[in-house]
Amino acid sequence: MKNYYPKNKQGFSLLLTIVLIGAISISIAVSILLIGVDASRISFAGQQSNQAKAIVNACAEGALQEIRDSTTFAGYGNLVFTKGTCGYFVTNNGGQNRNIVASSTVGTIVRKVEVNIDTINPQINITSWQEVSILTGEK
After folding, report:
1. Has residue 54 got a pLDDT over 90?
2. pTM for this predicted structure
3. Cis amide prior to 122 (ω within 30 degrees)
4. How far apart are CA 37 and CA 32, in angstroms?
5. Which residue in 110, 97, 106, 101 sits closest to 63, CA to CA?
6. Above 80 in pLDDT, residue 7?
7. Which of 13, 35, 74, 122 has its CA 20 to 30 A from that of 28?
């Protein structure tokens, strides 16, 4: 019996080369797409973080306004914005000393600040205003 299929090793090599190049091209394309998705997610989280920071600062300002309106104020309050929510807690540490802890949430991002005041009258004097850790409250 005759073999009707010629043995063409060059054709096989060419086919194998094309398959390998195709596989490598697909791998590169998928990698680029995944990098783009990750970059988009990181950018969105950064945007939410900036919004949360603005909201937490506005919340602390709201607490300062409560103190200005009533120098004996101690307690909590919250504010709702279109992009997120926040809450604050004011502690009277004796005399004119006050401590404000404010926290905001935008999506899954949470930001928290602590503000210390040593004088209320004639002006509110802020001794520190800093972002603090969410889990431990440590600076």
Report:
1. yes
2. 0.70
3. yes
4. 9
5. 101
6. no
7. 13
Amino acid at 76: Y
Structure tokens at 1: 């019996």
Q: How far, in Å, CA of 104 to CA of 53, rounded?
A: 7
Q: How many CB atoms lie within 10 A of CB 98?
A: 24
CA nearest to 103, candidates 74, 72, 127, 137: 137
Q: What CA–CA distance (Å, rounded) separates 92 from 105?
A: 25
Strand order of the β-sheet with 85-92 is 75-80, 85-92, 98-106, 109-119, 125-131
Residues 6+ apart with CB under 8 A from 128: 114, 115, 116
